[in-house]
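step: validate -> pass
step: tokenize input -> pass
step: predict -> running
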Amino acid sequence: MSILKLNKVSYKYANGRNNREVIKDKSYKFDTGKLYGIVGKSGSGKTTLLSLLSGLTKPTSGQVIYNGENLTKINSADYRARNCGVIFQSFNLLPQLSAVENIVLAMDISGKKFRQSKIKLAKESLAIVKLAEEYANKKILHLSGGEQQRVAIARALSIQPDIILADEPTGNLDAETQNDIINIFDSLAHQMNKCVIIVTHSPEVAKRLDAIYELKK
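step: predict -> pass
step: emit ->
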């Protein structure tokens, strides 16, 4: 059974008298152990679709189904805190905190109980994304864009979610760093059995995906 589904989902932006339909009657399926891409031109609704999948936005019509349940019927904040790790395009890391502190904060917010210390698990998450231990206690302000991206992925991974959503995770990275980041997502899907869904414009990234859903204006 697919872990995440769109069932005839549509979404309209309310703008005064005009309701602009961004997503129209989409039915997609997402399985664990696979790497998916959402592609399309600017304005086609890619980020909106990711927002619907994360529960940050509710569909105008249709259903987003997680593990057989309508996402609007469950606590969407708990869903993001425990089951769905979201990696925002701007990272949304707290600059005054260190890499480890950002990750531990996400674990605290999740409310989950962990068998090991959160600091140890945070460092293990950083190891998975191949960020050297010397960076663990550095403030986010002192990290490069690629290093911050790794911290953002590690933070999403630390809550042990079934699903990972990422909005343009390689958009501002050089070619070598982009390849490293996609290798991480590939490993999360194919070795750690996560359902990984990314929005991307990159043809190089698209070549690495198991399935692609294209949105059109």
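step: describe -> Strands lie at 4-15, 18-26, 29-30, 34-39, 61-66, 69-70, 84-87, 163-167, 195-199, 211-214.
step: cleanup -> pass
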